[in-house]
Structures are given as C-alpha cells and as structure tokens.
Amino acid sequence: MLNHSPKLIDISALFLQLEWGVIWKQRVEQSLIAAEESVEGLRIRALGPQKKKHWSNAPVKKSAVQKTVKWRRP
Question: Which superkingdom is the protein from (predicted)?
Fold first, then answer.
C-alpha cells in the first residue's frame, strides 16, 4: 500500500469537493432553466388563445361630412 501524506489526502479531498460543487452548480442551473421554461408556459397558457380581431369590429372612421352634420331628434 502506498503511504500518502496527510496534505495529499486533504488536497484530493478538496478536488473531490470542488468537482461535486461543479456538478451541483450545473444541476441547479438546469433546474432553474427548467423552472423558467415552465413559468413561461404557464404564462402563455394563462393568457389563453389569442382571438383574431374580426374586420367588422374595427372602429369606423367618420367622414368629413358626418363630422360636420349634427343630427337632431325629430
């Protein structure tokens, strides 16, 4: 068996912890991205289907004649 000095063991343990830290960071980032995508999906679903506006519901522009003529009740 090889005899390792305590410093080498400490350094290898630190590298192992660093490696696990990188892995956990990646997992957290992936879960954050997934959460953002699900929130966006919920937001789109909450808005509901967007209805197309029908041409008959468009505001009618008054002509110059209609603007000048005042209608009175009989």
Answer: Eukaryota
- Show the 3-state SS of 29-71: HHHHHHHHHHHHHHHHHHHCCCCCCCHHHCCCCCCHHHHHCCC
Determine how many CB atoms are found less than 10 A away from the CB of residue 1.
3
- Confidence (pTM): 0.44
Q: Where are the domains of the chain?
A: 22-47
Tokens of 11: 């350094």
- Scored b (16 or more CB within 10 A) or e, 27-52 reads eeeeeeeeeeeeeeeeeeeeeeeeee
